[in-house]
Design brief:
alpha+beta, ten-stranded mixed β-sheet, 7 helices, globular, disordered N terminus
């Protein structure tokens, strides 16, 4: 997806670890929420003291479980990007799950970590993962929400951490037309920072704009964006493109023209990271988790491209 220093939803490398208990391990499924304002993104940055969501969680989980913990996440978020329902998994030795602190019940980690984690991050739930579950590769789709104010005074101060400011008024209908033209299986190279050996083909399943203005929050809009996966910076680039169309600086055919490009376009602006929140990740039925993970690992192509 796409965020500040990485992308709102750039995904991590695969671990290849089995879903459950081979070799005395069990896989845990975690649901996490965080205010990304003061984090340098999700991913731990080796060799630095930068504050990241991953490092805060892994360090405290390792402390409670008394073993090194490594998390695999559904979608890595960049600096300044938030999550209300991020999903991750980790593999824990059975012996560590039997410590007196949790006594074999992973749900108790919610209470234990609430005492240790800073106020801007929370473990919302934790449970044993079903067979075949992989937080990244088993996912069917990710849901993001982007919140923006075009009011001359900017966002309401109490919403300033999750609502970006756009300095020009916008036409909602024009933004929706631009968004609708991007729906479907497309190569979004113009909207992404390329990664080596990674495809930029994605299935954008939903991109809708809403006027959520109130008396307290005039000229406030939300974009709801869903895809099977997102490239680096993709969500913020999609939003920024629609905003420039909505404020009149780009024509109605601008987004369609971008779909024909094969590399990142310098004409595509990135909307500010603070307006972006990962709000959910969908998974198939438990019996389909392993098959979905196997399918996702394959290299994606467009229908008219050779495989």
């Amino acid at each position: 997806m796409s965020v500040s220093s990485s992308t709102s939803c750039t995904e991590p490398a695969a671990t290849g670890t089995p879903s459950t208990g081979d070799g005395g391990f069990r896989r845990l499924r975690l649901h996490i929420a965080y205010d990304g304002t003061d984090f340098h993104g999700w991913a731990r940055q080796a060799g630095t003291d930068l504050r990241t969501v991953q490092s805060a969680l892994e360090d405290n989980l390792s402390l409670v479980l008394r073993t090194p913990i490594s998390l695999t996440v559904a979608g890595r978020t960049d600096a300044g990007v938030h999550a209300s329902d991020q999903v991750a998994h980790c593999d824990v030795p059975l012996a560590s799950l039997q410590t007196r602190s949790i006594a074999g019940d992973p749900t108790t980690l919610v209470r234990r970590l609430a005492r240790l984690l800073p106020e801007d991050i929370a473990l919302r739930s934790c449970e044993f993962a079903p067979e075949g579950f992989d937080a990244r590769f088993s996912a069917l789709r990710r849901h993001y929400r982007y919140r923006i104010s075009t009011s001359p005074s900017g966002p309401l101060p109490t919403r300033a951490r999750d609502t970006a400011h756009w300095p020009k008024p916008v036409n909602l209908a024009q933004m929706q037309l631009a968004a609708a033209s991007l729906i479907g299986l497309n190569d979004f190279a113009a909207f992404c920072k390329a990664r080596p050996h990674a495809t930029t083909i994605r299935d954008l399943q939903r991109f809708e704009w809403f006027d959520v203005s109130t008396a307290e929050e005039p000229e406030t809009y939300e974009a709801h964006v869903t895809a099977d996966a997102f490239c680096w910076n993709m969500v913020r680039a999609l939003v920024g493109t629609c905003l420039m169309t909505g404020d009149g600086r780009r024509g109605n055919d601008f987004t369609t023209e971008l779909l024909g490009q094969t590399e990142r376009s310098s004409k595509v602006p990135l909307a500010a990271a603070c307006g972006l929140t990962l709000v959910g990740v969908d998974y198939p039925e438990d019996t389909q988790l392993a098959a979905r993970a196997q399918e996702t690992r394959g290299l994606r192509t467009l229908p008219d491209q050779p495989h």
